[in-house]
Amino acid sequence: MSEPTYVLSCDCGHVTMTARGEPKLSLYCHCGSCRALYTNDVLSLTGWSDDNVDVPDESVLFDHKMSDRQMRRFGCPKCGMIMYGRHSPGIPVIPHGVFRKNNGGELPAALAPTLHLFYRERVLDIDDDLPKSEGGEMIGIDG
Would 133 be classed as within a structural domain? Predict the structure, then answer.
């Protein structure tokens, strides 16, 4: 059986990237840094090994770095769509919305979130059965 391959593009098609295999993690992050960087109340994301993601050359992307954190997001300079980010622990982080956009509006089942990270920092309560990590501990995620 071949590993899953996700071909991802921005809204206008100027930027494309590929993710292969399974992500290292898939979760909801509630930390203030992610909320600020992505301008969302909750960041729904997958984190990948560098070996499993072919990201575009940074020269064709916009690059936004938070001035007070070691966090960056990259996206299309033409349509403005955020494609991925890099923050602790330095792995590519791809928002679930990028996968939904490229999969008929659905998140592939293999990428379903497994927990809520930094839940103590939340700005809204989410009533689901996933574990709620109060801090940065990675409940149920193998290294």
Answer: no
